[in-house]
Structure formats: structure tokens, C-alpha cells
User: Fold this.
Amino acid sequence: MKKFRLALIHAIAIAALSAIIPGCSREDNQDYGLPPGSAILRISDSDDVPTLDPAAGYDTQSWEFEQMFFSTLLKYGDADVELHPDIATSWEQSQDATVYTFHLRTDARFSNGRVVEADDFRYEIERVLTPATRSKGIEYYKGIVGASEFTAHAAAHVSGIETPDPATIIFHLTKPDPLFAHKMAMPFASAVPREVVEKWGEDFSAHVIGSGPFMLKEWIPGQRIVAVKSPLYFVKGEPRLYAIVDLLGVNQELAWLKFQSGQIDAGGIPPAEFPYVMKNPELRKLALKQTTVTTHYMGMNCQMPPFDDVRVRRAFNYAIDKNKLIAILNGRGIAARGVLPPNLPGYNPDLKGYEYDPARARQLLEEAHLRHDFTPQLWLRADETLMLLCESIQQDLDLVGVHVKLKPLAWGPLLEAIRQPHNVELFMNGWEADFPDPENFLSVLLSRKQWGANNDAFYENPKVEALLAQAAPVTDMKLRFELYDEAEKIVVQDAPWVFLDYPVTYTLVQPWVHDYVLNPMRPTRYEKVWVEPHK
Amino acid sequence: MKRYARVMEVVGLAMVASLVVVAIFARQLAPHDPTRAVAQTFGDPAPPSWEFPMGTDALGRDVLSRVIYGAQISLTVGVAAMLVTMTIGVLFGLASGFFGGKVDFILMRITDVMLTLPGLLLAMAFVSVLGPSLVVLLFVIGLVSWTGIARVVRAEALSVSQRDFVTAARALGAPSHRLIARHVLPNVMPLIIVMAALGTSGTLLLDASLSFLGLGVPPPTPSWGRMIEEATIYFRVAPWLATFPGLAIFYAVMGFNLLGYGAIARRRQT
Assistant:
């Protein structure tokens, strides 16, 4: 109700403003200092962008912009999570995955005109490794030889990074890391011009210069970011847009109204409007969807009775109707069968999960002699949609004789609570991949080493532990995925989670916008996007 | 005019009585279990039909059955919270009005302080700290809404205790507690009953507001406020989900208000 009223007030306010102030009804290109008639993509965000400095940003919104302004050695495809060349034209890794060599293109330039060299990558990684930068990416590059000496200020440079010539960069690692190439596709490892960073210091974020397809024209905090195409971008014919305007401080409801009136070109769908959009054929046509590399699960604390009994955990898996959850989400998900989501390399499409089978669940609970007065508490993030899903879960479990109480609370306290041992028996959580590799799910979420960190189900199985240790350094992808697959099968058998769903995200894009593609793991790249002339 | 007051009172009484009947016989009246899915309308609420006169919600539950069972919670919370409200309010008001002086001053300053705090916010704070449950809810609602009653009862008690029959009883040596119980309270009683009816509509609304904010009786127990909250996502595709519980709240509040105002109007004229 409240939301609806807010939307109504916004609508009236906008209508009134546009009637009173001529020329304000349409945000003209001139308003942003852009040539009339130029191809512009208009997007919006409710909050200001945290940072544009690639060493600092570690959130979707910052990365969306860092991808525009900077280049990395490698990047992901527009709609896939495979590695593709960015500034590196080719790369090799040693048999044991401890030495990585990248060959750089020589025609890449920063928007200030200087040619991008291997040293610029070395400089940025050293910047990330410098404790004073307080980069959240520091962990990813600690495996480089000499990184710890450099971080401790015992060396002027990281000894494991070699730049024999301006077009070659070689990384030596302390131990095998088959995922290292992926770390070179994170914005942390962008090429940045040293002279510009040193000129601005802490203020670099507001004056970024990189070698990406766009350059920062204007950033008025809380109002807008304007990015214009970089004439020096190394891919001919890209970017196809002249500029991107991001309107800041536009909340979801206002963005929705702006989208409907054609004032922004792409945007999300507020949860309260989703069923409406899906029922409206005109709007539905404009929706792009993508399965993200994410798994939603209901964790069961394997150290807390009765969830220390695998029969109880399996019973919960049989008792919950995942297809009903997907229906409640209006199709914004795919029923999960295991830990790894589709779109993740190493995903096993033939994995046998748990079918909805309440009779089986009841039988297992009887075998486990579950007490009839057992009323577990299901902890969840306070959110309308999640609450609805949990009520459905509550219904399902009620049918097998388990009466669940729901405990909604804020995201921060929830994360804090589930990390404490013997604290939370049942909880809703999810994980989105940082790297497209099974290691990023299985080792991060289910290894004994992650107790008190990310292994919030406090799951432990020595067989899984051994397989994870065995798989981690393997560079033969086929063998690697087989090992992880074996580990995943054991985890599914042990059922530390109820495997719920792999979420699907939706974005609405105006009919005049083309080649706008959603990536399963990273923000959309804008260099290939183009817009037709429109009113 | 007197006839209108009478009509208001009777209609109000009938509305409240009908609610009480619905609440008591919810099990017999509701066509379905309010917490179970009875239709496969997951994520796609179905509009009213012969089978489901108020439609079904996104979890496949029958809205009519939920509205009927919702009466139980709303009435329980509304009436029980009103009793808490009345107990506190009447005690404060009687003591203030009867004793006057310092007692009056202190009690009324406490009341003033409570009046400055917005009831809904205070209730939200209490429920957030104590955790939502039926008992917490009715005490919290009671604790934040007694101030108005305390003031009205004080005024009435003040005027009653000045009257001759009280003075006479006091002259005969009756102790304070006897004076209050036998002389002041019976004379304030009609007012208290009227205030109780009006107070119930207030506590009902507060309960609905708290439930709407997710601080009401926890699910799966159906409550009108929560039903409206759950309907917000579907407001544009399934407005009936919010409409029927909304009408139920309207009906209940209206019933208690008619009863209360009717009684006031009749009392003024006699």
C-alpha cells in the first residue's frame, strides 16, 4: 500500500513538474553537455557509486563502471563466463599452474594518450597489495611470489611479477593456482596509469583515467555520472554508444516510472511490480533474463541436533516443494538439484537431487525418531518475497509434521548469527560466484576450514575434504571437474543444505536498445550496446 | 437525535456480535484450512469465484477462510489489549481524580510523557526487542494506548468525587478504597464501557498496523494486517488480496466505533 502511494505521489509530482516547467519534461542531451542527437544510454541507480577506483571497488555497481573505464588482461564474454582476451592477446600457463605469461597488445592507450604497458598492470597489482590502499582484493594476489615480502614493506617490488618487455608480463606463484587467470579478469587487476594515480592520490576515484571503452566526463555525487566514448579505445568500432548517463539517487519505484515513460533505457523490476510485468505482454517482451551463477539454499546446522542426523536433513530436502517456490517467484529461478548452478563450468546436468516426496520425508523423520514438539526456527533476511517463500516452506514442513517458526531479521545481524557455532539451526542463504569454478562453491562453502566463516552449515566430511584438497591444484579441467563432481555428489548425499533454487534475474530494456546482454556473473558490458534514434 | 444514537448503538452491537460469532465458530464457518494450500495458484493469485468467494492467494490459500480466522486474532488482540489498556488507564485515572494534589500531578505528568511518544513507534520498538508473539503484542498495544483513557477517567472521577454523596460517605468515615470502589467507580463505569468500545477499535487498528509492518502475530496464523502486507506485491495483479482483509478491518473498527459513539450520544441525551 505504502509503496503504491509513493509511486502515485511520484507520478503526480512528475506530471505536475513537466506541465509547469517547459523543457523539463524531456531530459535533453544538452542538459548533460552532450551533442544533440548523439546516441546515449540512460540508466539509473538508487545510490551513488561507492568508488570508481579499481583497487577499491568490490561491489556490482562499482564494477559496472570500472568495466567501462578500465581494461584488464582478460575479460569474460558478454553472456558467458569464459575468459576472453582484453589487453592480453594470448596467455600461457605452465604445466603445474605456477607460472602465467600474458602477451599484451601494443595499440592499447589510456584516454590521456599514453600507451598501456606491462608495468601498468604490475603497478596496479602492487597497489592492491599495498596495505595502505586497503583493497578488498588483496587476498586474491597474495599467492604471487614475493607478495608477502612486498606487503610487509621488505621489498620495493613483488619479485614474482616480471615484465621483460612492455608487451609481456609474467607471474610466478608460490603454489599451483589453476584459477589465477580468472583473477586477472577482476577489476582489481586493471591497468591504471601511475602518473595519474600519483597526481590525485586518494582522489583518483573522482578523476579516473583508464584504457577502457569509455572515459569519465562528469561525476556529480548524488546526481549523475556521465561517461563518453573514448576515441582511443583499441577495439575498432567500439563503443557504439556516444555516452552513458547514469542518474543517481533514483529509487526503484521512481526508476520504474522513468522506464515506463521512456526516460531511462534499462532498469530492474521492483518486486512489487514483477507479477504485473509478467502478465503484461507489452512489458514482458522487453524483459531480458539470465540465470546467475548463484545458488540459494536453506542451511541446516549439521552440529545441532536433530540436524546432526543425515536422515532429518534428507527428510527436509524431500519435504520442500521447490517447484512451488519457483512458481511463487513467477519463474525467477530454476529448481536446484545440488550445490553448483548451471552456467558454472563443471556443473553436472545429470546430478540426481531430491524430488518432492513428502511421504519419503515423513518416513525418514519417523526413522530418526524426531520429537513431535520439535519446532525449529528458520532465520531469514527480512524481505517480502523471502517471507512468502519461507511461508511456503513452513506449509510444506507442516505437512510432514515439523512446525517451523520464522525469524526475519536484517541482513547484517543474520550473517553474524549464522557464523556462530551452535547458534542457528535453520537459515536461508545464498552464494554468488566470484570465479566460474566449482572450487568457489565447494571449498568456500563446505570445507571444514571455513567453519566460522562461509561454511555456515558447519558441515564436515573427510572424504569431501580430501577430494577438495586433491582437486584444487589440478589444471586438467576434465579431471578437475570430475573430482569436484564426486565431492558434490557426496555433499548432496549428506544434505547439509536444502538445495532450493538457482535465481534468474530480469532486466527491462527499451525496444530501441540493441545488443544489451546480461552476464551470469558480472555487470553488463556496454561497449557493444547501441541505440536507435527514438523519441 | 436520540433515535439515531439508539440505531448507531444497535447496529454497532450487531456488527460486533457478528464478528464474535465468526471468531468463535471460525472452524465451522471457514470452508478450508487457512494455513494450507487448497488451490494450485502459486505465485498467481486467483480472483474470486464460486469455489473461493474471495479468491486464493499466492500460496494457494483460501482468502475467505483466512479472513474468517483472522477475526479470531484481531478480536483476541483487540479485546485483550483493550483490557490491558483499560486496567492501566482506569487505575491511573481514578487515583489521579480521586486523590488529586501530588498524586494527580505525578500520575498526570507520567501520562503526559507517554502522550508525547508516538504509540506506533513505541509499540514497534517494544515488539522488535521482545520478539513478536501474541502475548507480547497485546501487552505492548495495551501499554502504549492507555493515556487517553486515563485522562478521561480522571476528569470524570474528579467531578464525581466532588459530589455530595461522596462527601457524605467520607463524613461517615468510609476509607478511600471503599469510596473509590463503591461510590466513584460505579459512577464512572458507564463512561469506561463506552471508552472500552472505542478503545477496541484503536487497538484493532494498531494490531493491523503492526502486522502490516511484519511485527504482528507470526505466520502461519492468519491476521488481517499481515494479509494486506503480503498482498502489496500483488496489488496490481490481484487487488482482492488486499481488499477483503481491508474490508474486514473496516467492518470491525466501524462496529466498535458505532457502538461506542452511539453509547456516548445516548448518554448525553439522558
